Amino acid sequence: MVTCKNLYDNENMKQISEMGQYKVFEHHRDMSVIPETAMSAYFASKMNVRRRQVLVELAGGSCIVQGGLMQWTAGQVQLTSGIKGVGDFLGKAIGSKVTKESAVKPEYKGQGLVMLEPTFSHVLLEDVSKWDGMVLDDGLFMACDGTVEQKVVARGSLSSAALGNEGLFNLCLKGKGIAVLESPVPREELLEFVLEDDEIKIDGNMAIAWSNSLKFTVERSSKTLLGSAVSGEGLVNVYRGTGRILLAPTTR
User: pTM for the whole thing?
Assistant: First the structure.
C-alpha cells in the first residue's frame, strides 16, 4: 500500500476539475523561484499563467498517455507499450508523422496513481461518447481511457487543408470513455457550437475539436470575388452537417 502525503492536502495545489478517473490540479503559485524570477512568477500567477497537472486514479482500469508525459506512478501500476505487432507499430509511426502525436502511447493498467507532467496549457476533460467521433487539432491529446479508440482521419481534400492552413490528417477519438486534452484557453472562454444540418464559417484555425461527422471545406467568405475583397475576409474554414465544434475565440 502506498500513501502519498502533501498531494490531496497541498494548500498550493488545488483541484480544479474531475471526471472519471482523472483529477486536474493547478499550482496557484510557483514556489520554486529565485530573486531574479520572483517578480515575473508573481505577475504570471495573477494573470492565470499557472502550472497544471493531471492525476489518474487507476482502480482496475487503464489509461493511454501521450508518450513522455508520465511524471510518476505509485502502486500496482503496469506499463505496456500498446503496440500489437510490427504492422501496428508501422501504422502508428506513420500516423504520428501527420498528427504530431507520439508514435507509441503507453498504456497504464492496475491499481494506483499516475501523475502527468505539468503544463502551462489549460486542461479539458471530455466525454468522448457525447461526440460522433471527436477530431482533435494537432498536438492537443494528453491521455484517454483505455476503452477509447484512436484513429487517424483525413480532414478533407488536400487543397482545402492547404488553403485553410490546416493539417490534412488529425487524430480522432471514438467510443466510450474520457479524454484529457490541452487547450490554449480555459474552458470558460471556449465556445461550443451544436450543429443540426447547418454550417459554421471560421476565419482561421480556431477550432480545437469537432465531430468527425462534419464536412470540412475552405471557401470564399462571399459568393463573389468582389464580395470577398470588400469584406476583407477572403477564405474561411467551413464545417457543415450535424455535430459539435469547440472554438477558441481568444487565440489565433
Answer: 0.83
User: Domain total for the chain?
Assistant: 1
Nearest to 201 by CA among 213, 188, 189, 214: 214
* Integer Cα distance of 202 and 221 in angstroms: 9
CATH of residue 121: 3.60.160.10
Which residues constitute the domain of residue 234? 13-247
Q: Residue 110 falls within a domain, yes or no?
A: yes
Note whether residue 166 is domain-resident. yes
pLDDT digits (tens, 9 = 90+) for 132-191: 899 999 889 999 999 999 999 987 655 555 555 556 789 999 999 999 999 999 999 999
Are the C-beta atoms of 53 and 122 separated by less than 8 Å?
Answer: no
- Straight-line distance from the first to the last Cα atom of the chain, in angstroms, rounded to the nearest whole number: 47
SS3 content of the chain, % helix, strand, coil (to 5): 20, 45, 35
